[in-house]
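Action item from last week, closing it out:
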Amino acid sequence: MMRSMFAGVSGLRNHQIRMDVIANNIANVNTIGFKKSRVTFQEMLTQTMQGASSPQNNRGGTNPQQIGLGMSIASIDTIHTDGGTQSTGQMTDLAIEGDGFFIVRSGTDEFYTRAGNFSFDTEGNLVNPANGLKVMGWMGDVEKIPENLSSIVITKGQPIGAQATTEIVYINNLDADTPDGSSYQVPMKVYDSLGRSHTIYIEFTKVDTLNNEWSYTVTSPTWTINGADTGTLIFDTSGQLDIAATRAANGATDPDIVNTFSFDPDGADTVTIMPNFFGLTQNAQETTVVAHSQDGNPPGSLRTITIDTTGTITGVFSNGINKELAQIALAAFDNPSGLLKVGDNLYQKSNNSGDSRIGQAATGGRGSIAPGSLEMSNVDLSEEFTQMIITQRGFQANSRIITTSDEMLQELVNLKR
């Protein structure tokens, strides 16, 4: 008799725990990055009234006779399915699409979160403004992940220094029908070590139509050009630059096909430039050669940032330079359900979560990042309300076990009267 009552008590207690979990799920239906939980039950220890017997010559075997003693909690699992993504338009709001967690720290304490509502504080640290935890990653444009992560610091209006030009890239076509002796001049603005601009001209002159040969001459209206201020370009019969012949004609060394030229601006370092002609062709079309790009720049300041799907933060500067400033790190786990919830949308490692696999988003099994968006809760209200009804009915049924067992005990007591 008491077994049935204790079984009912276990059912009441554990259905109440299940209702507590459901209530927490519903309460967090609008919590950023929240992951719902579920409760599973299992049968408790069973009392064996009679063991099983094996078949005999004149009698078959019998099954064991066992009475269950109620039920208990088997597990309370965190369900790490993706929540919906809501666009916010705020660049530092970040949602993870797929597996992975943002890494945040307070001192030496490391936590993991799916809530990407980040912003920059007054010192330029990328943080969660709700608790001040710093977002981890690494600074600069690095090809290899550093051993130690660092906080991401980007200050408003931070400067970028001047960079002297070291290469000019020329592209497009030189007209194959150009008469010998005809020329075409292309200007290009370059920069010295102080960030001052200077205009350099390269004049392309057709030298030998039969051998598809051109010469070039570097000039400046302001400065004396030193070094290889002249050179030769030779094209093959398909209109492509003949690299071997051009390199030999200029006495250049691999991998260059021409030699460098330089000039000495007042008060600045010598500017040494390698002209890059790999993008040139010679076809029977109009001459369209342009100086496509150069790698120098004047000084500037940070205007804004962009964040891509890999978590790379790129700075857009006032001098037209786009530069990778930092990389947001993601951590993935073999068993994310084994992580320990510690509040504030945070998780910590546990003995069953496995070690974190840290790296760039969209690599190594880690999800991609959606900038300007937040991941919403993965709670499904229709599912939770259904589970609430099932749990309520289970609770009611177990309460009936207790009241019925009590009535049966009362009948036993009444036998004495």
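Closing note: The chain has a mean pLDDT of 94.
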